[in-house]
Amino acid sequence: VHPNVSQGCQGGCATCSDYNGCLSCKPRLFFVLERIGMKQIGVCLSSCPSGYYGTRYPDINKCAKCKADCDTCFTRNFCTKCKSGFYLYSGKCLEKCPDGLEANNHTMECTSIVHCEASEWSPWSPCTKKGKTCGFKRGNEVRVREIVQHPSARGNPCPATSESRKCIVQRKRCQKEGKGKKNREEKRKKSNKDESKETRQESKGRAARRQNREQRENNNKTQPKKRKALNKEQNLAPVDTAH
After folding, report:
1. What's the mean pLDDT in 152-158?
2. What distance in Å separates the CA atoms of residue 186 and residue 205, rounded to the nearest whole number?
3. Any idea where the R-spondin Fu-CRD domain is (predicted)?
4. What CA–CA distance (Å, rounded) separates 168 from 226?
5. What span, in angstroms and rounded, lies between the C-alpha atoms of 121 and 194?
6. Which residue in 167, 67, 180 sits closest to 127, CA to CA?
7. How far is residue 8's CA from residue 14's CA, in Å, rounded to a whole number?
8. Separation of alpha carbons 45 and 31, rounded Å
9. pLDDT exceeds cutoff 90 at 161
10. How far, in Å, CA of 112 to CA of 89, rounded?
11. Residues 107-146: pLDDT tens digits?
12. Which residue, 59, 63, 118, 221, could crosslink 48 as a Cys pair with Cβ 3.0–4.6 Å?
């Protein structure tokens, strides 16, 4: 250590020298040695750099190196990220994963082997042949299932997701599309015609009932007047006194 120790240091140093850099750090900062060529100087940081872990002591906080195969670590014996070519498992960096585990090249970790899982089979489909369900005796029916869990690299592969088998149906003649369409159109027109006829009949019935009701109301209004006029005429008629 150079004997010229300064108290007015920069960059978080509590004490420093021109030759060695920081000699001690301010509270809560970590002291670490950085190599510059053949020379090492002390620096004070708020957190330890990659490849180091922090240790706190009453008099000083230091950054210590992780193991050679460890990129970042929590302590010297517990790694959190491994260097290239190693796989992380339980805080250790391994070149090969233990039995029952597989290497994940994306996360660079040893993970559990995942096997494929499929759902239950669906019911068999209707018996068909060339997309039709009539006009044949022998056809095929199929059933399917879905993959609910895809496998990892070393997991068991997925089974088939569809099955087909021969089937026999009672032979029936296919209804012609044109004829069937024509029949449906005729039925629709007839239904519309019947509905229109019923609607017209209902309308006529309502009109007749309304006319009868109005006529009764008019009769009820005019009958008192007629009776009153008749009574008046009877009272004014001359009395025949000649006998």
Report:
1. 91
2. 28
3. 11-110
4. 89
5. 49
6. 167
7. 8
8. 7
9. yes
10. 11
11. 899 999 999 999 999 999 999 988 888 878 889 999 999 9
12. 63
Give the position of tokens 């003649």: 173
pLDDT band at 1 (very low <50, low <70, confident <90, very high): very low
CA 212 to CA 223: how far, in whole Å? 16
Contacts of 194 (CB under 8 A, 6+ apart): none
Q: Please report, as a single letter, which amino acid is at residue 46.
A: S
Contact of 165 with 128, CB cutoff 8 Å: no
Catalogue all structural domains in the chain, each as residue range(s) with its CATH number. Answer: 7-65 (2.10.220.10), 73-112 (2.10.220.10), 118-168 (2.20.100)
pLDDT of residue 2: 45
In this structure, what token pair is assigned to residue 188? 């629709």
Contact in structure between 158 and 116 (CB atoms under 8 Å): yes
Q: Which pTM does this prediction carry?
A: 0.48
Q: Are 61 and 48 spatial neighbours (Cβ–Cβ below 8 Å)?
A: no
